[in-house]
Structure formats: structure tokens, C-alpha cells
Amino acid sequence: MMDIDVEEFDQVNYAHLRDANNLMDRIIDEKGYEFDTVMDIGCGSGRVTYLLDSRIHCHKIFALDIDLKSVKYATHRHASPRIQYSLQDISVPWAQLDPKIQQLEGKVDLIFSNRVLHWIENKQQAVANFYRLLKPGSGSLYANVTTLWDLFYDLPEEERKEYERMIYIPNEEEQVEQLHQLFEKSRFDSINIESTILRQHYPSEQFKSVILPYFPNLTKKYMVEKNGHKRNQIMASGLYEYIKNAFLRLYCREIFTTKNGQKSSEFELTYGQIRIVAQK
Ligand SMILES: C[S@@+](CC[C@H](N)C(=O)[O-])C[C@H]1O[C@@H](n2cnc3c(N)ncnc32)[C@H](O)[C@@H]1O
Known about the structure:
By secondary structure, the chain is an alpha/beta fold.
């Protein structure tokens, strides 16, 4: 789980909205505006699902999230007669999915997922579920995945090795290759995976209180230790602070601006994104 307050997050998800809009542009360019059954995997606050519903014409959007608070928030704040929000971990074995989701087997025209797959550890199972849900011959998947990069490259060798014993982050090429293999293994027919570098500016206070904690949480997914409790213990013993500072040092810049004579500052975050477009 992301360990982030959904309401707070909904106020600062500028980059999510921009990346989602870009993904929707690509869907519209390649597939048009008309879909019957759509799924939004990892819908979070529902803001992006609502946007999807307003940009494409569809009969039904099934929007899933593993986090109950997000599903409740989305149901309350971003409702539409076509959207059905449900609580669901998409990475469980097929037989454990909610029977209502299982009933969609082979019926889904479009799976959309914005900035979710990097949170999922059992990606192979999630991708296998996507495949079963999609309509044979025409079902498409469009996903944006946020990527983490090397957090230790400027450290002396010994220190670097010590951190790498705890956390393994594949490089960009390896991440693309791993995703390719996952989709191939699940028998997707055409698989297109691209990696890009993106930047986003955030007001400094919001950046420090909401966005920055996101990265140590995400880094947990790359820890060699798999036990959740032990991961938290290791993080609490100084790793959390190291990662926060490494992000600030390596991937953020504070930019000072003046508006109407008032001084203020923003943070520019540089992050990686992998886009997956796959057909069944
Ligand atoms: C960064 S948020 C993105 C939310 C939304 N797609 C957006 O673009 O604003 C990632 C979401 O994925 C959800 N998530 C993580 N793992 C999941 C899983 N295994 N199954 C379903 N949702 C998951 C999280 O709870 C979170 O709401």
C-alpha cells in the first residue's frame, strides 16, 4: 500500500493528471473514443477515473483499488452513473478475485492504469489477470508505470554496497526488459514499452509534506527483505531518512520565484515513466 492520505494526495496529483491525460490522448489517437467495457486498475481517489469517463464514451467503467479509504473517497467524490468503484487487489490469484470481477473474463475492451503497477509486487499475477479480463482479439491495455532510479550512485563504494545489500533497483533497461518478459509470459500479442524522463513542479510545502514521503514508501517495494514488518523496522533505523535525502539531492531542485512581489519556492521533481501498450 502507498501509506498516503488519499484526500491530501488528491490535492497535489498534478503529475498524475498530466500523465493520465497523455495516456488518454494516446488511447484516443490509436483506438478512438468508443468503448463498451473499461477497467481502471488502481483508481485511487477516482479523479483520473472521472476524467477517463469524461474523455471517452463507454458503457461501463469498473474502477478497482486495493485501498478501502480510496474506494470510499472515489465513490463519494467522483461518482458517475457509468463508474463502479470496488475494493480489489488485482494481484491475487484469479480464483480469489471478487466473483463480479471474474464475470468480466474475456469481456473488457480497455484496461487503463495510471501509475499503479510499480506498487504491485506480484506483477506476474496482475498481468495474468489483465490478460484473462481482456476481450480476445481486440482488448487493449494502456498503462503508465513510475520508475525508481539508482539512489546510491554518488556514495563511496563500500557505503554503496551496504545499501545495495538492502535494496535492489534494476536500471532503466532492466526494468523495461522485465516488464516485457512479464507481458510475453502472459501471452500478450503485441507489446510496446517505452521509457521517458518527466519533470513536475510542486509548491514547496506540499512537495515536502505529501510527495516526498511517497518515495521511501515506494522504495520499500525494492527491498531484498520481503517481510513487511521487518521492512518497516529497517526503514525506521535510518534508511527512510537516507532515501528522502537521496531523492532531494539526486532528483529534486528547489526553484525560487517571485509573484506580485512575494517570494516563494517550488520543487522540480525529475522522475521516470514507463508506458506499456499491449494487445490481447
Ligand atoms: C499512485 S496511485 C494512482 C491512482 C490513480 N490511478 C491516479 O492516477 O491518480 C496508485 C494506486 O494504486 C493502488 N494499488 C496499489 N496496489 C494495488 C493492487 N495490488 N490492486 C489494486 N490497486 C492497487 C493504490 O492503493 C493507489 O490508490
